[in-house]
Design goal:
With 464 residues, this protein is of the alpha+beta class. It folds into two domains: 3-55 and 315-461, no CATH class; 61-286, no CATH class. Helices cover 51% and strands 19% of the residues. The protein has helices at 3-14, 18-55, 85-92, 163-171, 175-184, 192-195, 241-253, 257-260, 288-300, 308-351, 353-361, 366-407, 426-443, 445-452, 456-461; strands at residues 61-65, 68-70, 76-79, 97-112, 115-124, 136-139, 149-152, 160-162, 199-203, 216-226, 236-240, 280-285, 304-307, 410-411, 414-418. The two termini are 26 Å apart. Residues 174-185, 265-272 and 410-416 have low confidence and may be disordered.
């Protein structure tokens, strides 16, 4: 028989007993929808956690820091390698590294017009900013040719306070009075757009005995503002690492002798960090999986490395366990549906025994009989799986819409974004449909073989 004819015959046979076929298909619909919705709950938890972590740091970025290294149990295992130019070269040569930049950190006070506050300057390689996924909301990136240009985080302006208020606070005597002034005089946040194009004067070290007696050391021009979603860099300002080293030297010249005594001297042990080493090194991997592997490789090489992907791995382990439990609950429904398909096919054999015998007598091959019953079982799985996937999308929409109104929870990025209760990616829908068809096919194997083994003459003589 022609395979297309077998398929059309299988479809017609299913609807000869509409009630039974509908009930059997309904079992597949419920089973498929159950397993998809259950898995979607675990996937939504993972996605919400990932988005929340991305707000506080890029998952592809690995930060190599100076200081003590720790094992998996949190026990110290010794100091990490010094972060110098040799370390940068070694890290750049590692597999999976897309971009590398050493970082030098310096904090100081700045003044902008009548406002004054603290700023943390981070010096990096300007040529690596875009490769390290620094995303701007306004302005432009700094270049190696820029002089005293900086890019600021979205909330750097929150650190600036009216200088007259600061002078009144410094002049106030007594802890209680100062505390009272601090509580009522909150700094008014400066919008990032107001800082773009402005000059921030980095102030010198204050004179002894008068913290307000400072002078401008260098003027820094704000040429760009980082995207507000990058919370990890929201309170930092970035400039060229070479310029920052010069700024630090200029600042140290203005320091008082008592302040200079706290500056670390040149190391005697070459294996220990020195004053000219970098505070940390930023490394970007090609993807999240590579970031995890790279972080482990850096630890084995003797560095103190950490990435947001390390934390994400622990969350993923928990959600994988949760998805397995939820998927198992949904799988029980699909298993019951499979028994229903097998029962329907067996009953169909008993009802159509004489029909099967006639088909064999007029020339139908054993393989054709087997394919016919397998096709009927697969069609039940296909129809039920398709309707089940559609139903799961409806349930997911209701959970994400009406459920959130009841829960009233904001999304990972804040009130402007909804948190997902259920997430059905395309691969899950396709996998569920394929699984439903496979369940139908497997459930039809026994009935198909039973029908194929019937003897034609004996089947025709049977009267049911």
């Amino acid at each position: 028989m022609n395979k297309w004819d077998i398929l059309k015959l299988a479809y017609r046979n299913l609807w000869r007993r509409k009630g039974r076929t509908i009930l059997t298909t309904l079992g597949v619909v419920i089973g498929t929808a159950s397993i998809v919705v259950m898995l979607s709950l675990g996937l939504a938890i993972t996605e919400n956690q990932r988005k929340n972590m991305e707000r506080w740091g890029n998952l592809n970025i690995v930060r190599v820091m100076a200081g003590m290294r720790f094992d998996d149990k949190g026990q110290p295992i010794g100091a990490g390698k010094p972060l110098n130019d040799e370390a940068v070269a070694e890290i750049r040569s590692m597999q999976g590294v897309v971009a590398v930049s050493p970082a030098y950190v310096f904090g100081g006070e700045v003044r902008m017009e009548r406002k004054r506050g603290y700023i943390q300057l981070v010096g990096i390689d300007p040529s690596q900013m875009q490769a390290l996924e620094f995303k701007l909301s306004q302005g432009r990136y700094i270049t190696p040719e820029d002089k005293n240009a900086i890019i600021i985080g979205y909330r750097v302006g929150n650190n600036l306070r009216d200088e007259r208020e600061l002078r009144r606070m410094m002049a106030s005597k007594g802890r209680a009075i100062s505390t009272k002034i601090m509580s009522v005089s909150r700094p008014q946040p400066v919008e990032p757009a107001e800082l773009l194009g402005k000059r921030l004067s980095l102030l010198s070290s204050p004179s002894e005995g008068n913290p307000m007696d400072v002078r401008p050391l260098v003027n820094l021009e704000v040429v760009g503002v980082l995207d507000e979603k990058d919370m990890q860099r929201a309170y930092e300002a970035y400039c060229s690492i070479d310029e920052l080293k010069q700024i630090k030297k200029m600042f140290e010249k203005t320091m008082q002798p008592a302040q200079k005594s706290g500056i670390p001297r040149q190391r005697n042990d070459p294996n220990q960090p020195g004053p000219d080493d970098y505070q940390y090194i930023m490394v970007r991997a090609s993807d999240v999986g590579e970031a995890k592997r790279l972080s482990d490789a850096l630890k084995r090489a003797g560095y103190n490395a950490w990435s947001m992907a390390d934390s994400l791995e622990g969350i993923e382990k928990q959600t994988r366990t949760m998805r397995a439990i939820l998927g198992g609950i949904g799988g029980i429904s699909l298993f019951v549906a499979a028994l229903g398909i097998a029962n329907t096919m067996v009953m169909s054999i008993y009802e159509r025994t004489r029909e099967i015998g006639i088909m064999k007598v007029i020339g139908a091959a054993v393989a054709d009989i087997r394919i016919l019953f397998l096709s009927e079982a697969s069609l039940i799985g296909l129809i039920g799986g398709t309707l089940g996937v559609g139903l799961s999308y409806v349930i997911s929409y209701v959970m994400n819409d009406l459920g959130l109104r009841f829960i009233g929870m904001p999304g990972p990025a804040g009130p402007g974004e909804k948190i997902m209760v259920s997430l059905i990616p395309p691969w899950l829908a396709i996998a569920a449909l394929g699984f439903a068809i496979a369940v139908g096919l497997i459930s039809g194997v026994y009935p198909a073989n039973r029908a194929a083994r019937l003897r034609p003459v004996k089947a025709i003589r049977m009267d049911y």
